[in-house]
Amino acid sequence: MPGWDRPAVLALWLRRLLPCLGALVNGCMAQELEPRAYSAAPIGTHFLLATYARLGGDVLTDPSLPITDVNAKIDIFALGYLQVFDLLGRTASVGVVLPYSRANVTGNVFDAPNSVYRAGVGDAYLRLAVNLLGGAAKTPAEFARHPPVSTLGASLTVVAPSGQYHADRLINIGANRWAFKPELGVSVPFGNNWFAESSFGVWFFTANDEFLGSRQRQQSPIAVVQLHGGYQFRPGLWLAADAGFYSGGNTTVDGVRNDDRRTNTRYGLTLSVPLVANWSGKIGVSKGWITRAGGDYKAITLTVQYRWND
């Protein structure tokens, strides 16, 4: 085509596609739904968790690009540990999650089918939380004697750039950057069975200075609001309805801003079931309701948890 600079146009298309795919695997965790994240627990309690998550769906790209039918299937396997302790008379907890991920991404480029497979260790997550109001530290015996009360908590989640990353690849398991999410959360019981929770947090990201070689990729903060409501049938057996709202996250590559602001909404259900002594299981399902950019995934999460006390 006369006057068409193909290399320049391809470079433009690539730059506009990068935000949609570059953090495909790592970005899934930014839109998770976490019911009962601020519910109280007795001090001296330890939790060991094994989780499997399956996500699948379309990846929304700019309709002007010659790239269509982008679809991703992602499997995440994770091990986690959490300990509840006394912090200046308040209930506090610290937890760590170590994920392993694999992803299959398919799509058409100029109507030609393409596919990419990635597998490897993901970025590690560390979370510190403390109940500021209504969360006085209690031993298991004291905790059992007191009815549930409303709590206000704060947490800080840190994601370390410990996952697999190759600077010459567009799609990676790790993000090659630090991420931080300060958050406030409220948990309110209604009688002995019903409960409601809400939280507000913001993800902040450092720059990735090795994006496709030596390019610099930056991302603006993402605000996260979560709402949960549920019913506890008996200790350990509860069902919650979940909703999450995510806004922000524009990216820039070498100072060039991309039109990829996220204004996404997800909803789902979470069921927790006691199994045998000290063991419980949890299943969560969710899907996108409104997705403006990135992955429009359906997700299912299965968790097995073992609990013990000092």
Describe, in plain words, how this protein is organized in 3D.
Helix content is about 5%, strand content about 60%. It is mainly beta. It has one domain: Beta Barrel (Lipocalin), CATH 2.40.128.130. The strands form 2 sheets. Strands 1-2-3-5-6-7-8-11-12-15-16-17 form a 12-stranded antiparallel barrel. A hairpin with a 3-residue loop joins strand 16 and strand 17. The longest helix is centred in the first third of the chain and has 16 residues. About 35% of the residues are buried. The N terminus is likely disordered.
Descriptive tags:
mainly beta, 310 residues, single chain, 2 helices, elongated, twelve-stranded antiparallel barrel, four-stranded antiparallel beta sheet, Lipocalin
- The shape, in one word, is elongated
Give the helix/strand class.
Answer: mainly beta
User: Unreliable runs, pLDDT <50, ≥5 residues?
Assistant: 1-22
What's the pLDDT, averaged over the residues?
83
Measured by DSSP, the beta-strand proportion falls in over 45%
> What oligomeric state best describes the polypeptide chains here?
single chain
The structural domain count equals 1
Work out the number of β strands.
17
**CATH homologous superfamily, by name?**
Autotransporter beta-domain
* Main β sheet profile: 12 strands, antiparallel, barrel
Order of helices and strands: HEEEEEHEEEEEEEEEEEE
Give the proportion of residues in helices: under 10%
Per CATH, the class reads Mainly Beta
The main sheet orders its strands as 1-2-3-5-6-7-8-11-12-15-16-17
* CATH topology title: Lipocalin
Using only CA atoms, what is the Rg?
21 Å
User: How far apart lie the N and C ends?
Assistant: 73 Å
CATH architecture: Beta Barrel
